[in-house]
Amino acid sequence: MTVDWTFAGTWPYQPRWFDTDDGRMHYVDAGPRNGAPVPMLHGNPTWGYLYRNFIPSLMDAGHRAIVPDHLGFGRSDKPDRPERYTIRRHADRMEALLESLDLSGATLVPQDWAARSGSGGRPGIPSACAHCSSSTRSPTARAATSSCRCH
Q: Are strands 107-110 and 37-41 parallel, antiparallel or unpaired?
């Protein structure tokens, strides 16, 4: 049986891959390369598909939507060694991925524990950014999702 990773067209995004020592991470990078980046990080027990309805609106507004899957989730590798699933390891891998994309002026949108795993363990401050100037509720994300603007 072949898996339809587009889910009947609801996830039409080109898969991209980031290699780590722990395994290969899947991510989506959609929209104009020079658009303001919006990394959207999922928590547990979901994956990047959570943001499927956000990506088109962000792209239409000229943003660059970046949606990674943590290791063990979605299309990313699923290693069988439990020590690869600590928050610290998730944070280190996410930091490396975001750093590799050379983002600036990003608006980070974390859901659930992704606020820690996408910020190097420092809530609200992604390591790829110099600082986080404010933290607010995102109008496009729901109650459990917050965002911060980074420069």
A: parallel
Per-residue H/E/C for the chain: CCCCCCCCCCCCCCCEEEECCCCEEEEEEECCCCCCEEEEECCCCCCHHHHCCCHHHHHHCCCEEEEECCCCCCCCCCCCCHHHHCHHHHHHHHHHHHHHCCCCCCEEEEECCHHHHCCCCCCCCCCCCCCEEEEEECCCCCCCEEEEEEC
Mean pLDDT confidence for 82-110: 90
pTM for the predicted model, two decimal places: 0.79
Structural domains of the chain ordered from first start? 20-150 (3.40.50.1820)
Mapped onto helix, strand or coil, the DSSP state of residue 136 is strand
Structure confidence by residue, pLDDT tens digits, 4-57 = 888 999 999 999 999 999 999 999 999 999 999 999 999 888 999 999 999 999
